[in-house]
Amino acid sequence: MKSADAFAKTRAEGRAALIAYLSGGFPSLADSIKAIDILIDNGADAIEIGLPYSDPVMDGPAVQRSAGRALAAGFRTRHLFEIVEAVAGRVPILSMTYWNLVERYGVDAFARDFASAGGAGLITPDLIPDEAEAWMAASDAHDLDRVFLVAPSSTEERIASTVAACRGFVYAQSVMGVTGARAATSAVAPALVERTRAHTDLPIGVGLGVRDGEQAAEIASYGDAVIVGSAVVSCYLEADDVPSGHQRLAELTADLAAGVRR
């Protein structure tokens, strides 16, 4: 299932999509699969599985902690494909990954194995289209979405070249800096979405900072998708145990899903 399928559904319903992020292998391999099922059952329209990395440049404290725990427990790239295979079919499943991990595995081999597992595509926060020749070829060969990022600092020329290379949707990084739930949404996000929309008909997902349904509703008023990550992993980081984390996740997701449907 591709991102376009999810956006066709949400657009027909007159609402934004809810895209939820979870670090692969957190809080454990089996529980990350359970968590993704919970996210989908409670209204997530697409899933981003973060491929844990020891040297992140964009992840905030919550995502770093969750990825660190997964790595300490032995998570490896091959486990990503196991998770995707276990949850694929109901909603699009993407992976957000730093490019070094894909290069080390082999770009075409990664694309092949991810597609074979049922994955929809990759979000590549530290890869720009100018340096993505191998990924462009592999994603075309294996029919995968490729999601690049635009930011408030992006020039008009950079936005135009970035969205031209995207397939599936565009990721609008609504704040400068690392990820993390925030008390207020970005004041520059609406302008970034408007600037980006002038260059593409692709859906635009807005990420970084969303923590509850109220904020989700605010972003859903101008974005095509609301992307939530740190608040999701914090359900487990702040819980006394995994079952409590599952319950917190179900409640948060239902709140977020209600927000994008207002």
Protein described:
This protein is α/β, with parallel strands linked by helices and 262 residues long. The chain has a single domain, classed as Aldolase class I (TIM Barrel), CATH 3.20.20.70. The chain is built from twelve helices and nine strands. The chain has helices at residues 3-12, 29-41, 61-72, 77-87, 99-105, 107-117, 133-141, 156-165, 189-197, 213-220, 230-237, 242-260, and strands at residues 17-23, 46-50, 93-96, 121-123, 145-147, 149-150, 170-173, 204-207, 225-228. A nine-stranded parallel β-sheet has the order 5-4-3-2-1-9-8-7-6. Helix 7 (133-141) links the parallel strand 4 (121-123) and strand 5. The two termini are 26 Å apart. 48% of the residues are buried.
Distance between the termini: 26 Å
Largest sheet: 9 strands, parallel
Domain module count: 1
Task: Name the poorly predicted regions.
Answer: 176-185
Shape: globular
Class by alpha and beta content? alpha/beta
CATH class bucket: Alpha Beta
Number of strands: 9
CATH architecture: Alpha-Beta Barrel
Helix content: 40-55%
| CATH 4th-level superfamily | Aldolase class I
- Helix-strand pattern, N to C? HEHEHHEHHEHEEHEHEHEHH
Q: Give the percentage of residues in beta strands.
A: 5-15%
The oligomeric state of the chains shown is: single chain
Global Rg: 17 Å
